[in-house]
Amino acid sequence: MKNRPSYAIESVDNALLLAQLLVLEGPMRVTDAAARLGVSPSTAHRLLAMLVYRDFAEQDADKRYRAGPLLHGSTTAVPLSALRQAALPHLQRLVDRTSESANLLVLTGGEARFVHTVECEQPLRVGDRTGKALPAHVSSAGKAMLSVLDDDALAAVLAGLEPTERTKVRRALRAVRQNGFALNNEQTETGLSAIGVPVRWADGMVAGISLALPTARFSRDRVPGWVHELHRCARGIERALSSS
Fold this sequence. Notes:
The chain has helices spanning about 10-25, 30-35, 40-55, 80-100, 140-145, 150-160, 165-180, 225-244, and strands at about 55-60, 65, 100-110, 110-120, 135, 180-185, 190-200, 205-215. By secondary structure, the protein is of the alpha+beta class. The strands form two sheets. A six-stranded antiparallel beta sheet has the order 5-4-3-8-7-6, sandwiched between helices. α1 (about 10-25) packs across α3, α2 (about 30-35) crosses α3 and α4 (about 80-100) packs antiparallel against α8. The mean pLDDT is about 90.
């Protein structure tokens, strides 16, 4: 996981995050962008105007903004806005029941990309990861998503790994399938642990959800309870998607 720079410029960070959201979630209005960033509509409008000026966004006839020419090669056909909308209430309930932060992720090539985070209220907690990406074969939700891919799809995702690493990952995924969940115990970030499960949805597509917490609060005795709540959340998201 990349650390936020100590010299981060908030306006630049908001503009880049907004560009990511246009790719991940599709077209949005100024009010949508303001809500997602937690800024005023006037600030969101200025950010979108700059993205349009630099070809990172473009405006439709209906006044919605979408990913611009410079981002067209990255645009996904997966309706992530529908996935996020269906998942939000279930993720919030998961956080309420566990008092830990919850994430929604999708596969983009060999990466697990964070679509949304619901943070818990504990003073020491895992923060918002929206827009960030991790290698799928080491992150908890990434491994959970890989575990349900068919052989051809999995081979394509793992093609860039060394043969010995591919063998190791495939062995780990067999354990994930058997156990019904995946663990990431400081594999991606020192002091962070996470548990992930897959979410199956339309046309064989798969997403993933994870609970992320400081390793200081991680206990293997609590894993069964966390896994139960994760599966409960995943089934709720799947039902919401099937009825939408």
